[in-house]
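Lesson 9: reading folded outputs for more than one chain in a single document. The general rule is that every protein is listed as its sequence immediately followed by its structure tokens, and records are never interleaved. Here is the first one.
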Amino acid sequence: LDFTQLVDLSVIFVAVQYLSTTAAVPVLRGRGASSESAAFRLPAGPALPAAGFVAVCVLVALRLFGEQSDGLALLTHFSALVALGLLAALPSYLRRR
């Protein structure tokens, strides 16, 4: 891969982390609603993580399918790297079971 493709892949991996974080906020807030940790309130409630999720999705789509991007190649590389990571983590997961 050339430098530009590596940068694109790193941006997509970071975006996936942001997506999982914004998707987890409402779930985690719902679980801690009755505990003392529920004292923290988001200014816009669940709208703020939802807006973050949509914004990251739009930015990733623009990066993947923009004019100067080869989105199919990026998705192929991303999928291959995720599959490789899952295969590497599989033995550790199976040992815990």
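And here is the second record, again sequence then tokens.
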Amino acid sequence: MTKYFTPDEVEVLIPRLAELMGPLVDLHREVLRLRADLAEEQRRIMLSGGGTLDRDAWRARSRRIEELTRDIQEGIGAIMALGGVPKDLAIGLVDFPHLMDGREVNLCWRFGETSVGFWHGLDEGFTGRKPL
């Protein structure tokens, strides 16, 4: 059975959400950077007709991506244990189920916000946020 949150219930969680989401945003950014580095290395090798690969550096980056991914998964699990649904790690977006006039919607919190002031329908995303 779905637990529906009130804005006040989400606001109580904001300090913990911020504590969890801040590092997740940074970890996500680092994974994207490392993946881009690997893609650029692949591109360089392809364009040079098969240049040399620094296998140790490649393995180290790949291992780091795996480690960061595990850390991200743990952070997402912690947010989900609070009842939130992480939506976008790039901007730190978390939704919480809410009933508004008998209709299921999402309360929408973004990392850096000090309160929950927005909602959107289930078929809408961040761009469909409306003030509470």
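What the second record shows: The CA atoms of residues 76 and 86 lie 7 Å apart.
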